[in-house]
Specification:
The complex is a heterodimer. By secondary structure, chain A is mainly beta. Chain A contains no helices and 11 strands. Classes of the chains: A mainly beta, B mainly beta.
Chain lengths: ~120, ~110
Amino acid sequence: NAGVTQTPKFQVLKTGQSMTLQCAQDMNHEYMSWYRQDPGMGLRLIHYSVGAGITDQGEVPNGYNVSRSTTEDFPLRLLSAAPSQTSVYFCASSHRNVHTLSSYEQYFGPGTRLTVT
Amino acid sequence: KQEVTQIPAALSVPEGENLVLNCSFTDSAIYNLQWFRQDPGKGLTSLLLIQSSQREQTSGRLNASLDKSSGRSTLYIAASQPGDSATYLCAVNEDSNYQLIWGAGTKLIIKP
């Protein structure tokens, strides 16, 4: 298994540009999520999905859109990039025990380092 | 609102020492707690996951404990090695929707 893959690894955007960060997993996990990581702060949840066709907002959703048309893919779209969106973005996936509802461990991609000038 | 705190923010110890990293959380109603390792410029690697019904989990030289009533978890690293140098993060899953609440991490440096 490749696990969780993310592309690109690095990206520089100008203010106002749009782009899509790609995330894919080959573990048939129902849960996928996007986090951003900023210096000195914990990871913050942007959006998440509990299955194909289902998405929801996390802690910091403004300026980002997501869709989940397949179990494998969960792209993150920046609609109009702003310098405040300069960050490292991580995609993660997980599944859970349907009886106890306890989640299993989350698997992370290598991250995308985004700079907005 | 759940808050997760990791103290200290950075720790430097000589090689070979046993050490403990701390994680505290404000709401004891959690499903599980997970410890991760992050190397510079890399993604996160899951080290140990402790379900709310468990007291500890072990993997090699790592042992993680959980005390829900006091809102604390510790990650014990035995016989530290330079390769253990990384940032260690803890995160709690406080309900069934998979979301993790994160600490800011402890940056660990093991001096040869």
